[in-house]
Amino acid sequence: MPYFDQDDCQLHYEDYGQGTPLLLLHGLGSSVRDWEYQIPALARHYRVIALDIRGHGRSDKPRERYSIAGFASDVTALIEHLALPPVHLVGLSMGGMIGFQLGVDQPQLLRSLTIVNSGPEVKPKSLRDCLEIARRWTLSRVLSLDTIARGLGRLMFPKPEQAELRRKIETRWPQNDKRAYLASLDAIIGWSVRERLARITCPTLVISADHDYTPVAQKAAYVAEMPNARLLVIDDSRHATPMDQPEHFNSSLLAFLAEVDSAAQPAPRMP
Length: 271
Hints:
Layout: E1 3-6, E2 9-16, E3 21-25, H1 39-42, E4 47-51, H2 68-81, E5 87-92, H3 94-105, E6 110-116, H4 127-142, H5 145-156, H6 163-172, H7 178-188, E7 204-209, H8 216-223, E8 229-234, H9 241-244, H10 246-264
Parallel strand pairs: 3-4, 3-5, 5-6, 6-7, 7-8
Antiparallel strand pairs: 1-2, 2-4
InterPro entries: AB_hydrolase_1, AB_hydrolase_fold, AB_hydrolase_sf
Domain AB hydrolase-1: 21-122
Keywords: Hydrolase
């Protein structure tokens, strides 16, 4: 299993396939394992690199304050460690936030950006927003990871035929380090790069589940602020779209990436 060191922290990643690099960033409380329905399909066309974000999976979990900017610095270090050309970056939820951060700070590192069920800020806009953030912050500290896992499993995979997906969440989530999980949650709350979205000029695909935590209209609003972005809504899906709609997700992502790569090819010379 490959690792690299960044600021006295050993970070784990997995590396599959060959070709143009495609970097996968998971969400809060997750790990590279939650890309299991994507890696085989994507690695037939790309060099797929999946990172366990600091504090998650097999990466170290240092006792420190985490930040989205710090996570993005880790991703930059991985790109430099592997001497990669500009990458296709796919980020889910918190991974999407890291993608946004990288896009505004290091746009030259990105060939394309795919944001899945995420946004460029987590700032309350109303009293209701403040109460919801406070509720989540409090429950995350009061409840055990086992209890949180059961609740998330029911919320993200409510259908009877999704029992196996619920089981995965209920098994994997409690394996988190609670302190690192809370530090990562704290890194999200109050974060924003909304005012700098115009810096992201690479082709950008925003994928939203029709039943994500935040409404499709919120994604449409920030997509309109980006110079080269489009929105794709996937029906009958919730927050974990790559898991509950893997075929639709994979085919849509591959079509977008093929379009980006085709546009980047130099025009043939005239005889």
